[in-house]
Amino acid sequence: MLFSAQKYPELVRLSYELRLDLLNLIHDAGGGHIGGSLSSLDLIIAVYFGGLLKNNHFILSAGHLCPALYVVLAHAGFFPKNKLSTYAQLGSPLQGHVSLDTPGVEYASGALGQGLSFACGLAVGDRDRTTVCLTSDGEHQEGQVWEAAMFASKYHLGNLINLVDHNKYQIDGSIQDIMPLDDLAAKYLRFGWTVTVVDGHDFRQIATALEKAADSTYPNCIIANTIFGKGVRAFQYDYHYHDIKVMDESLYQRTAAELESVINRLNPDYGT
């Protein structure tokens, strides 16, 4: 396994600690993309702290989810944690979309839908290593994603994993209302990929799927069913929190207290 069963409780607690870091980052900056960052955070944690990323590639296609990546990179030691407070400031390497100025980043995200194509190029050029690409479900409304899916199948990119954050919301509402994806798994199967569907907040399921995908001879799609705004009740399932323009101070205090309470309960010394 990518990580031992004993590590799961540590990862669950870490996921809430990093949610608090993420909330503080958005609060300090005065705004940012928080809903999808919270839904995708556990997926990024599993990749970085599960052992898969060693000597491999990670591409964040949905660049606006960068707050989640930034808190993970800081915890992994790519840059000091105090740099998180510079998010979205002029001259900071931590901008609203990932750039090559950010330590630990291999891909500067542009318009949605381009990252999987870039990941295909990496997978072709470096077949000895695995390339993991994190995409959003909303960006599957872009045609370039499906061009990349065809390319990956034609060139038998078994070293490519597309990890889909399927939180079912985008900036203007639910995906079902705006442009339904219908059976996304069936689409990838028809394009010649192997497909696994997991609970995107269950580290055991994510680890098992990543380990299986790393040994595949076909391109791999892991569709992770996630909760938009996961971990903060006020944000969950509410597309208005796709991008917070200004975080109300009372809302910040309530959500921070909520996360701190969960972190304390997950502390093995809690109540002793």
Name of the CATH homologous superfamily: Thiamin diphosphate (ThDP)-binding fold, Pyr/PP domains
Which spans of ≥5 residues are poorly predicted at pLDDT below 50?
none
Please tell me what the overall shape is: globular
- Overall number of strands: 7
Q: Tell me roughly what share of residues is in helical segments.
A: 40-55%
CATH topology: Rossmann fold
Strand content: 5-15%
Number of helices: 9
What is the typical, i.e. mean, pLDDT? 93
How many domains, as an integer? 1
Regarding quaternary structure, what we see is single chain
In the CATH hierarchy, the architecture is: 3-Layer(aba) Sandwich
Order of helices and strands: HHEHHEHEEEHHEHEH
Biggest sheet, open or closed, and with what strands and sense? 5 strands, parallel
Widest β-sheet, arrangement of strands: 1-2-3-7-6
- Strand-pairing-aware structural class: alpha/beta
State the end-to-end CA separation: 32 Å
- Radius of gyration over alpha carbons? 18 Å
So what's the CATH class? Answer: Alpha Beta
